[in-house]
Amino acid sequence: MPLPIENYALIGDLHTGCLVGTDGSIDWLCLPRFDSASTFGALLGDHDSGRWLIAPRDAAATSTRRYVDGTFVLVTTWTTPTGVVEVTDLMPWGDRRADVVRRVTGVSGTVEVHVDLAIRFGYGTAVPWVRQVREGDDTALVATAGPDAVVVRGPRLTATDHTHEAFVTVAEGETVDFSLTWYPSHREPPTSVDVSERIDETVRRWQEWADRCAVPAAYEREVRRSLLILRALTNEDTGGIVAAATTSLPEQPGGSRNWDYRYVWLRDASMTLQALILHGYAEEADRWRGWLLRAIAGDPADVQIMYGLAGERYLHESELAQLPGYGGASPVRVGNAAYKQYQGDIFGEVMVALHEARLLGVEETEYSWPLQRALMQYVEDNGTRPDNGIWEIRGELRHFTHSRAMIWAALDRAIQGVEQFGLDGPVDRWRALRDEVRAEIETKGWDADRGTFTQYYGTAEVDASLLQLAQVGFVAPDDPRMLGTVAAIEQDLLHDGLLLRYRTESGVDGLSGAENPFLTCSFWLAEQYAASGRVDDAVALMDRLVGYCNDVGMLSEEIEVATGRHLGNTPQALSHLALVRAADAIGAARDRRDAAPSEAVPG
């Protein structure tokens, strides 16, 4: 059985990533990309779905773990009655190949280590042909099925019922290395890696990246780790940023709201980009802008809300019957039918992110502003369409207030591009349309009786996404209309102190079942509290939220409040970028409060 989601840690190479459990088992790994079929899929099944365990044989062993500071090199320290060992897990960065390296180091005494390897390509459907091959004086294990192959190097493994295992005794001062390398099966196995060299190089590369990070004093540790996670979810070749490393981890235990997040949503990627460039990573903006240009190339009428890592357009959604799902939550889905949806808000997020890049000195190229002009033409031609909204509602299309406000934001940033940076565009036409959208929202998306903006036109329901209206400047954070909206959101959506996205019982999403509080929304609320002067409330909520980070700083999509268990896909980019925004807002609010003149105290 897989572990609780919060018991996993990510290691990655900027192309894909592993989830390593506190029990020493890699239960999720897709090779060679995040969106490839799994090689280890026990997270969504069991041992026979594929996994790689390295841990002491003694069931009484206990462990602690940490990342080498500023990296994704994971060190797990195992303590047993006979001794202590460390297991160092990493995916080497920089050699343009898919390797997993696992080093066992004896710290004290002796420890018998159990190695259990079950390779299952194709989401658990392909038991590979496995053979031992000679490599000089050593032996390597080669496993092949269809287009995929891996070579495993280290102490000899023995076949037992479609798995391979070994028991290795490690004494103080000894080091035992294992490596697994994926390659296309029609080629020869790649050469072995120098483990010490790859560990040193990977640590150096991650720490050099982390050292460029400008972080606020508030929640410095959590912000730094969140930015590292956002980087780890970014493909270094294409610039695509996946929403999460996993698929089909349920939003409710045993439920059916299970989606594949291993793709690039324009919304999530744009917001991730904002978080990165605001903390010193302007070069990432240029790389992602190049990805965007390639993905959207051609007719802007063909723009999608999401793409594959390299800009692939066809993300057909299917169900995998061979995997029972995490904790029995089915179906397990691969692909995501939401790529066919129209979500008007994405234009706002993209234009806001590219405007932030301009403000930080990222210069427009001969193609980047024409790309934005093409997007704005699409906005002009489709500005009145109802959509599926930010939460990818699979029910009736509606005029979601958040989506309409993001259309306003897209027009606003295009106008600022002309007014502030001298770019060319039909600014008078954009201004007129921006004013029309504002008037429409203030009339149709406003409930005068409750004093709140609404989820969509014609309803009294509210939605946590309305908190973004202040973030993009549609209203000021302390505007009475925004404060009224916050009060309505608190009244309708707070669940044991954390925010739901919306009331699922309203039937708006066309899905059965419920869900748990969505971490991103609660971080947005903390940001809103800080921006509107409720600094103590912001800090109290933020302290609670960062307390849900697991032992290595990771957050998933949702939280089961009663238990603190993580739910949904992990690590979730949206959760981590919202954490960064909230920390920034709290830091700025504290600075404003400290800079404000003190009120005179009566004598």
Summarize the structure in words.
The chain has 603 residues and is α+β, with helices and mostly antiparallel strands. It has two domains: 5-188, Glycoside hydrolase, family 65, N-terminal domain (Beta-galactosidase, Chain A, domain 5, Distorted Sandwich), CATH 2.70.98; 212-592, Glycosyltransferase (Alpha/alpha barrel). It has 14 helices and 25 strands. The chain has a 15-stranded antiparallel beta sheet that branches. The chain has a two-stranded antiparallel ribbon with strand order 16-17. A hairpin with a 4-residue loop joins strand 1 (8-12) and strand 2 (17-21). Helix 3 runs antiparallel to helix 14 and helix 4 (266-277) packs parallel to helix 6. The longest helix has 23 residues, at 573-595. The chain starts with 7 loop residues before the first strand and ends in an 8-residue tail after the last helix. The model has no long low-confidence stretch (mean pLDDT 93).
Descriptors for this entry?
15-stranded antiparallel sheet; single chain; Beta-galactosidase, Chain A, domain 5; 14 helices; alpha+beta; two-stranded antiparallel sheet; 25 strands; Glycosyltransferase
Q: Percent of residues in helical segments?
A: 25-40%
The global form is: globular
Our measurement of the CA-to-CA distance between the termini, rounded to an integer number of angstroms, reads: 69 Å
**Residue ranges: pLDDT <50 for 5 or more in a row?**
none
As a whole number of angstroms, the C-alpha radius of gyration is 25 Å
Mean pLDDT reading: 93
CATH topology of the largest domain: Glycosyltransferase
Number of strands: 25
CATH class of the largest domain: Mainly Alpha
Count the helices. How many? 14
Beta-strand residue fraction:
15-25%
How many distinct folded domains?
2
Q: Helices and strands: which structural class? A: alpha+beta
Main sheet: strands, sense, barrel: 15 strands, antiparallel
> What is the CATH architecture assignment of the largest domain?
Alpha/alpha barrel
